[in-house]
Amino acid sequence: MANYYETLKVSTNASAAEIKSAYRRLARKLHPDKNNGSEATARAFAAIAEAYEVLRNPAERTRYDKKLLQAQMSSGANVDSVFASSNSHAKRWRQLVYEHRYNEIINRMIADERREAMALQKVIFPTVALFVSALVVGILKPQLFVNSAIIGKIIVVTLFVAGVIHLVRRIREAFERYTYGLNELHDSILDGNEPAVKPYSRLTASAFLLIGFGLCLGLGVLIGSQIHFVPGTMPSMFSTHLGPEFVFYPPIFVLFVDVIHTFALRVD
Length: 268
Fold this sequence. Notes:
It is built from 10 helices and 2 strands; from the N terminus they run H-H-H-H-H-H-E-H-E-H-H-H. By secondary structure, it is mostly helical. The protein folds into 2 domains: about 5-85, Helix Hairpins (Orthogonal Bundle), CATH 1.10.287; about 115-265, no CATH class. It has a two-stranded parallel ribbon. Helix 5 (about 90-140) packs across helix 6 (about 150-180) and helix 5 packs antiparallel against helix 10.
């Protein structure tokens, strides 16, 4: 049975990032275009591509690890090897080794799933917060900045700048993890796997964010036009029309939501 870890020259505990890095490094070295179409190089390139296809997928990697472990435990180097011995103590030792390795596989799979879930949450929470904040701003039309003293204006602007920086960072992280550029569709086989791993194009993701924000803001304005008691009871805080200062509040709201979410994760 082929050992894909040896093929990619990584350890069995290698992270997804380490596996991807090893594949790219070997792919650049072994690509047929860089080796005058050598048949041996082409076979080696196919081998690392096959290994990467399995090891990059957490579910496939778990199944492969189980098969590899069974193959390693069932094959002995010689009849005197502890792996081939029929001694009861040797059998017990083999079982302990097998269970330990199996637990390592399961623990790694759980850790990978947890990291993926946390990465997804870092995309979902800011996106939902951005859309909800656009809806709320459209309904309430806050005018805290206009009616605040100098210190209040400074606080709002400071939070706005921090919120924008935070939001841009989150969007960039999400794009790097889940989207691909259209130019990548025409890349060589070295990067040909990216669109399959990253299911959305950057154009689609950008359109989703912009259209979603615009629709939520428009819906909020529509709802707000039917609600008059809020600006009537608190005219110093809310207006009857949407002013330019509305841009301040969505990034601030996203920042607060993300800080609370991060704190909750650490407590958990």
